[in-house]
Amino acid sequence: MGSLIQKLNDYFGSSKEEKETRKMFVSSTALKSWWLTVPRNWQQLIADQLELDALGEEDVEYVSTLTILEGRRYGLDSLDPVVYLPQLTVLDISENEITDFGPLGSLSRLRELHLTGCQSIDLGVLTALPQLEILDISYPKAPHRNLEALAHLTRLRQLFCNACHLDSLATVRTLPHLEILTVPFNPLSREEVQQFSRTRPNCRVLF
């Protein structure tokens, strides 16, 4: 496998301006120091995402250019490293052991987030993600908190809430761009789901 620098140059271009855009940190020394503190499973996840066997010292300063991170079942118990990944637009951290989801609030560019099979989440943290369009919070290990916060995610197009202890659709009824809503295995009445479908004919509901 080649150097990450070469991969990025091939993908993004290598002009002076493009190089400067990719360098998200003023001090590469500080970034390398941070990298030494990153848990090994996070290091492996990032290397895998970049299709590298391992990150060399010359590659670390480009970690923050990642836009997609697929971290399902990596044994992650912390989200702290994502604050150094400000370009992320797609994140999958399903089926991990994370309990503090606060760092998600730093990912203002995030458009797609998968949290299937995670610990209970205070969904209020997601209101800091104004670009979010696709969200999967299905099958939590304990009921999510602050479900009302979903009403603030006004750009959502797809929402997957399987087995989320959702007992009302009032929180999602006003989402203007919703196209797909999945709510099986929730304590919802068939009548409420049918009424929602009638009032939102452009939204496909799976119940």
Properties at a glance:
single chain, 207 residues, alpha/beta, Leucine-rich repeat, LRR (right-handed beta-alpha superhelix), 2 domains, 7-stranded parallel β-sheet, 5 helices, 7 strands, 22% helix
Structural write-up:
The chain is α/β, with parallel strands linked by helices. The chain folds into 2 domains: 1-65, no CATH class; 67-207, Ribonuclease Inhibitor (Leucine-rich repeat, LRR (right-handed beta-alpha superhelix), Alpha-Beta Horseshoe), CATH 3.80.10.10. It is 22% helix and 10% strand. It has a 7-stranded parallel beta sheet with strand order 1-2-3-4-5-6-7. α5 (190-199) links the parallel β6 (180-182) and β7. The longest helix has 10 residues, at 28-37. The termini are far apart.
SSE succession: HHHHEEEEEEHE
Largest sheet: 7 strands, parallel
Distance between the termini: 45 Å
The whole-number mean of residue pLDDT values reads: 88
CATH H-level homologous superfamily name of the largest domain: Ribonuclease Inhibitor
Which sequence of strands runs across the widest sheet? 1-2-3-4-5-6-7
Query: What's the domain count?
Result: 2
Low-confidence stretches: none
Helix fraction, binned, reads 10-25%
**What's the architecture of the largest domain in CATH terms?**
Alpha-Beta Horseshoe
Radius of gyration using CA atoms only = 19 Å
% residues in beta strands? 5-15%
> How does the overall form come out from the CA principal axes?
elongated
Do you know the CATH topology of the largest domain?
Leucine-rich repeat, LRR (right-handed beta-alpha superhelix)
Structural class: alpha/beta
The strand count comes to 7
